[in-house]
Amino acid sequence: MKKILVLGVGAQGSTVARRMDEEPDVAEIICADYDQRAVNELVGELRKGRGVQVDASNKDSIVAAAKDVDLIVNALPLAFGPNVLEAALEAKTNYQDFAATDALTDDWVEGIKLMYTEYSRRFAEIGRTAIIGTGSAPGLICVAARNAMRYLDTCETIYNIVYEGVEAKRFLPFWWSPITALSDMSEAAYAYENGQIIRTEAFSRPVYRKYDYLDSEVKLVEHAHDEPLHMGMNSEKFFKGVKNVYFKYGGPGIDFAEPLHRAGLLSREPEDINGVKVAPFYVILKHLPPAPKYREEIQEILDEGLVSDTGAMVVEAYGTKDGKEVLVETHVFAPGLVESFERAGLTAEMYLTGQGGALFTKMFVKDMYTQKGLISSDMLTFEQVDYYLECAGELGITLQIEVKPINQV
């Protein structure tokens, strides 16, 4: 029987807690956050839940909450990552993160390298497993990309494509943490190109795609995300020597944030405005609504009506098979907002990212991880990929895979 600490009870952490409450091999779920009200409301829904207030800026506070747990699930903002990693090591427990912390060093790339080396060594030394990038993207999309490698002998290029097209009639630019969303939007992006990690301008280098299940052709742009870094660093062992990896993103959130970025309103540098020092980023953040996470909030949004309820997650893997150039095109299909709410009382974002994350947690509960040390979600074995996709299918999250000769693309 497993004991789990969920740190952060926002949209994703609360979803993991609810799903683990259903697992017969879970004895207790400790729900922890600085927001005691949010903790109490979540614990009130659970059979196995226990609430604690934790100040994640204080490592000792996390260590105290993690006493005797088998796993810490980190669903906090990125800045708390170093404290939670160190707390997991001190508590000698397994670790799961929805993303990868950006605060280990001043350079995000060097921080991820540090995770793959120093932190992997330290977790291996205590016989524990840490896994990062376990939401939908990164996470589910990485599993889809890893799965695509079954169909290739060599891989040249991978496009990770996400279009988030769910839009409410009310003002709601983001369905997940606004500070995480705006932080990603305000950063220069990364790509893995010609075997090297490069920086690219946010919102730049657009590509266009038209899928049968979307109403029209969509624009997708560069966006700061983990996938090019992870897959690039893991090119030889896990991605058939891939030379180019891109993450392309589109949807109403991008449409909202791009003009703000171009106007300089996502800058965190204080500016003198009429004698007052103001950082534009925090002014914008102050005026954004939080991501909906409670059933009654989501019901209100649905009652008011939606502008659209669409989306796309696609992996395009270009390479060779039996000496011929091919494209392995993988479409991830999952419930939209209306169906997600009908199925589980969740938003589509919570359903895909929260439940996608909960499947990685379930793999801990079922002792599916054979690796010791730190891995990212693109480093699963094919056996682990199969288990993940089998569980995802039970949630209505499925893959459609087509192998196309390049001359037919």
List key phrases describing it.
409 residues; alpha/beta; seven-stranded parallel beta sheet; Rossmann fold; Dihydrodipicolinate Reductase, domain 2; 15 helices
Written overview of the protein:
- The chain has a seven-stranded parallel sheet, sandwiched between helices. A seven-stranded mixed sheet has the order 11-12-13-7-17-18-20.
- Helix 3 (59-65) packs across helix 4 and helix 14 (348-365) packs across helix 15.
- It has two domains: 2-97, Rossmann fold, CATH 3.40.50.720; 140-346 and 396-408, 2-Layer Sandwich (Dihydrodipicolinate Reductase, domain 2), CATH 3.30.360.
- 48% of the residues are buried.
- It is of the alpha/beta class and 409 residues long.
- Helix 2 links the parallel strand 2 (26-33) and strand 3.
- The longest helix is centred in the first third of the chain and has 18 residues, at 108-125.
- The model has no long low-confidence stretch (mean pLDDT 94).
- The termini are far apart.
- It contains 15 helices and 20 strands.
- It is globular.
* Overall helicity: 25-40%
Radius of gyration: 20 Å
How many separate domains make up the residues? 2
Shape: globular
Distance between the termini: 50 Å
β-strand number: 20
Low-pLDDT ranges: none
* CATH architectural arrangement of the largest domain: 2-Layer Sandwich
* The CATH C-level class name of the largest domain: Alpha Beta
Major sheet: size, sense and barrel closure?
7 strands, parallel
What CATH calls the topology of the largest domain is Dihydrodipicolinate Reductase, domain 2
Question: Can you identify the CATH superfamily of the largest domain?
Answer: Dihydrodipicolinate Reductase, domain 2
% residues in beta strands: 25-35%
Helix/strand-derived class? alpha/beta
Question: Tally the helices: what do you get?
Answer: 15
Overall average pLDDT? 94
Q: Enumerate the strands of the largest sheet in spatial order, edge to edge or round the barrel.
A: 3-2-1-4-5-6-19
